[in-house]
Fold this sequence. Notes:
single chain, eleven-stranded mixed β-sheet, four-stranded mixed β-sheet, Rossmann fold, 17 helices, alpha/beta, 3 domains, GMP Synthetase, Chain A, domain 3, globular, 21 strands
Amino acid sequence: xxxxxxxxxxxxxxxxxxxxxxxxxxxxxxxxxxxxxxxxxxxxxxxxxxxxxxxxxxxxxxxxxxxxxxxxxxxxxxxxxxxxxxxxxxxxxxxxxxxxxxxxxxxxxxxxxxxxxxxxxxxxxxxxxxxxxxxxxxxxxxxxxxxxxxxxxxxxxxxxxxxxxxxxxxxxxxxxxxxxxxxxxxxxxxxxxxxxxxxxxxxxxxxxxxxxxxxxxxxxxxxxxxxxxxxxxxxxxxxxxxxxxxxxxxxxxxxxxxxxxxxxxxxxxxxxxxxxxxxxxxxxxxxxxxxxxxxxxxxxxxxxxxxxxxxxxxxxxxxxxxxxxxxxxxxxxxxxxxxxxxxxxxxxxxxxxxxxxxxxxxxxxxxxxxxxxxxxxxxxxxxxxxxxxxxxxxxxxxxxxxxxxxxxxxxxxxxxxxxxxxxxxxxxxxxxxxxxxxxxxxxxxxxxxxxxxxxxxxxxxxxxxxxxxxxxxxxxxxxxxxxxxxxxxxxxxxxxxxxxxxxxxx
Length: 506
């Protein structure tokens, strides 16, 4: 593929502008440029131009990507004015790019630098852990965004950060520790309830605490730490998977002051998108406004988590099937990723389109929150492959989590869940919903049959396709609920340090 003179010129201009922006970001408060009004189109187009620049650099200087392009023919990049259309470029993922090529070949220049590189790994919840390398420049960029995001969400410090993400080689825990040490008092406990409880008791309620971790652990923490959470100023930031609004309300009712989510991936970056008060208010409105949900949401089931993201740093798009593609637009990444498919189901809505959809329902953005930015929205529905098929419908872990939390007696007693699908002797479909009881909960729950009925009633309310399928299922094939004592049965070998396995075979 030959590169046009216009492409060369645009790439040079983008690199100059990005260098200027980088210098600005080193100054305190300059990140507020991100939220200047009336720059929505400019930010979006800058992101596409930066993605083009990253593509051109990777094509020339990254051996694996050069070979990848040779093996995956693609069309010519066309322009609308000065804005490129990147959709002809091939889609990469872990299977067709990360696994076939060595880690050296996937780095700029075909080698891993001998100094200034951090090696971390994904949790391995879907197989063998994958190693990732991150250079100094990208860690500095991520650190700046973490610092800015922390101040923007929970206010200026000082903060006492308790990092409850998994420690050791895992990506999130390692990078959180490196990213927030300079702007907070920080203790990296990992997901250890007793260590966090002892820390809170030792340092007392005079600090503004921020606890970061996976949602299942955060619920376990508030349920079992023996802490009166209302005595402490604690905010929580979750990552790794989404939560329902019922889960957020559950944590807040326990005394946690605020709960926000961050979307990242060890394959890519720690903080690609984040929740804020506006996105949370929008999600809550979707739950009670069917007409708005019908206009806004693309996929059935539980309401997705709603994030906003910076399109100048991350160019996000979706495939025709609704899977999220991410291009890392910062030129500093050691191992470039261009149209990388995480296999998450998602939806991108730019802010002008959101305003139009709200207006069609008689709403304005300020009806949801007094302050907001016009950054684009990412609606995240969860893993595209994390559903179970059952009599013509699909059931996802977010559906189950929301239904579980919709039955208070279950919400208080259940630590986690997993779904089992199998076929009976007559090839009849079977579905088991297994609940792990919290530690020290008795195995028999009072009226467990009645609770099962309440759970499936909630699941039918949340997932209309399941509700339709329920009417067709023979009595002998109705889904079943099973209760298991803490860390027994299918939960015996679960590791709280890594993501839960929510779907399993027979």
